[in-house]
Amino acid sequence: MESFQTTDGHLLREHATIIRQLVLQSLTEAGSGHLGASLGLADVFTALYFSVLRHDPAKPQWPERDRLVLSIGHAAPVLYATLAHAGYFKTEELQSLRKLGSRLQGHPGRDHGLPGLELSAGSLGQGLSVAIGMALAARFDGLNHTVFVVMGDGELQEGSVWEAAMAASHHHLDNLVAIVDRNGVQIDGPTEKVMHLEPLADKWKSFGWNVAECDGHNREQLIETLKHRRNATQPLVVLAHTIMGKGIPAIEGDYRWHGKVPSREQLPGFLKDLRNMHKT
Amino acid sequence: MNPYTNKGNKATRTGFGEGLLAAGQLNDNVIAIGADITSSVGVDLFASAFPDRFISLGIAEQNCVAVAAGLALEGKIPVFSTYGVFAALRAADQIRVSVCYNNVHVIIGGAHAGVSVGPDGATHQALEDLSIMQALPNMTLLSPCDATETKNAALAAILQCRGPVYIRFGREPMPDFTDPNIPFKIGKASEMLKGDDLTLIATGHLVWEALLAAQILEKQGITARVLNMSTIKPIDREAVIRCAAETRAIITVEEHQINGGLGSAVAGVVVTECPVPMAFIGMKDQFGESGPPLELMKKFGMDAASIADTALHLFRKKMSD
Prior knowledge:
The structure holds two protein chains of two kinds. Chain A is α/β, with parallel strands linked by helices.
């Protein structure tokens, strides 16, 4: 348990680099998948699983654990890499990503029995609602854990997200935290060109949420924002400003890398990029 | 003659509400979700009895269904009821992914089934819900025939089933005739009437009409067996095969599109196991309209006289083959 509550910056940086390496390796081996969001969310997942979340890989069904719902199922590789690195299963299993018979489905599927996986998801706009159900259940049971949900910014174009936003606020779910991966890009291009989202913070505020914005690659800032929220009576949304593909300069912010993976030839260079980022 | 007595017309949605209330009294984990029309879909009884276990989520069916999935993942037993057109269609993707793919025990009540909804017209008459729900893996699909059976079906759906359940019921008060002491058996059809010349396999409100149709046929010297198919999925294959083998003619009767509903489910068993002539009573790829419930049922060929007429044709076809 103790190792998952760290605030040691050096250690956190190491975790983030390892998670990115595992993402790159597993997606290259898979030959298909979504690299951009997984690299962009590596720092968010590091902050969550190695500092913020109350969890225990030895007891994935522990009733009092914090819940992490991944609404954008296409970012599964970063969830899998983080779970493996945290000890839920062996990192070797990451090589089975997207393959026949694997517990690591292209989009998360609980029916395959992967420990630590809270929800089968992949159709956008549903995770926040499911998280609301989990948060309501915790309230019914008098449990004080928190339900976290990771969403994409393009996902916010789904109308059902705003049904859920209304409901979470109406029911004063102070045990619910939504993290929006605000990387500003989606498959067709920049979010503001495909479908305008701004003023995004104001939208959430007007729905009755507490809103925090932070640098989604600044792990200390993320931890600070996610940990110190307890005095509120309303749900919290964190707009985490990230760069899609973070860590690989050649692809950073390039929406064409939303649903692409490196070739085997590209992999060594990409891994070298990660080592360079780790040093700086 | 019809061996069943109508104890008095009663809406199946009332039966659902009573079943939900009874389930709530038996199990503290039962939670009801409301999408505004609670009194119309039988949830108000539960909401008044257990206000702390009722969650109002407004007119937002997609959210309602996925919230239910979240509750179920945490061991609660959520029941979400709204009109079938909205439950099964507006929230179909949430039912598919958040409920069925996660294989969680969420109970969805689909109210206002069929053209017997009446004056509200086509938008509010659920006629496609059985097709859509039937296609989803892990789904159990119930369609009880009267208020009494609906109460027992709701109890079974909530407290005995595992995984996703969709239970379909209607708006209009209709004959209430089944024995309240017979527990609902999921996946088991019940033989309502013996007969050897053909089988009427009916579901929902139309089981009563099928019983009346059997009386009409009796006057023509034809004995019709009547089967109440109150579980559409998993379909009672044994019962269908037995009827096909023993009566050699099957007419399915449903207040639903014939594409993908009860008829398709029964035909799937018949053609693979025991091919016999079939006919299908139901909506023929068209929308309903406004009007008095019984007149609509007549217009769309779902009343006893129309059922008997279709059955007679099929019987003659069978005899001439």
